[in-house]
Design brief:
With 206 residues, the chain is mainly α. Helix content is 79%, strand content 0%. The chain has one domain: Vanadium-containing Chloroperoxidase, domain 2, CATH 1.10.606.20.
Length: 206
């Protein structure tokens, strides 16, 4: 699964510029027409990512601590690592790709409704939201956690387009980085845990 995510990301990052015209058209359709109340709500959704990350990590760990569940506590640590890794990777990609924000590229067509740094790809808010949703989903593995978590993350992605901060391809890029980071960290932990298990058993046999 991790390999598939990485392959998709590589293919996407090399081809997404070719769909710039479609990217612009979709963004313009989402961004146009002023709706003050809705736009204020979307700013709130975007901002909510910042408290959602630590609250989710602490919540997962605390749940494990209260129930004396070492696996869930470990999930809390993995959640923190995966989210941090996703944000770091997203930030690095922004400077590597160096894509101009849509409101700067098309100042007469795209309405800027929020503030952000100079680079667009991938969406950092979307990355963080999907990394958090993935951490929650992998920790609990319950549909009633997974569905709301990814619905919220998708709304964050939409909000970044509505506010004129990102193209659709930026949002998709953030989604791939966020989900991929969670899957990668969980897979690495699984490998490390297995190796540690085999080491312990081999030492017992000896």
């Amino acid at each position: 699964m991790v390999k598939k995510i990485l392959i998709i990301f590589i293919l996407f990052s090399t081809k997404h510029f070719h769909s710039q015209n479609l990217d612009f058209k979709i963004l313009k359709a989402v961004n146009q027409t002023d709706m003050p109340c809705w736009d204020k709500t979307m700013k709130g959704v975007s901002f909510s990512v910042y408290p959602a990350m630590p609250v989710s990590v602490i919540g997962i760990w605390t749940h494990g601590y209260i129930n004396k569940d070492e696996v869930m506590m470990r999930n809390g640590y993995k959640s923190a690592v995966s989210i941090a890794f996703a944000i770091g990777l997203s930030t690095g990609l922004k400077y590597a790709v160096n894509r101009t924000r849509p409101f700067n590229e098309y100042p007469n067509d795209i309405v800027k409704r929020d503030n952000a740094g100079p680079y667009s790809f991938p969406s950092g808010h979307t990355t963080a939201a999907f990394a958090t949703a993935t951490a929650l989903s992998l920790s609990y593995k319950k549909w009633y956690v997974t569905v709301p978590a990814y619905a919220y993350a998708s709304m964050v992605g939409y909000s970044r387009m509505r506010l004129g901060m990102h193209y659709g391809s930026d949002v998709i890029g953030g989604m791939i980085v966020g989900i991929g980071s969670g899957l990668l960290i969980w897979k690495l932990d699984e490998i490390l845990t297995k190796n540690n298990f085999y080491r312990k058993n081999s030492s017992i046999v000896e």
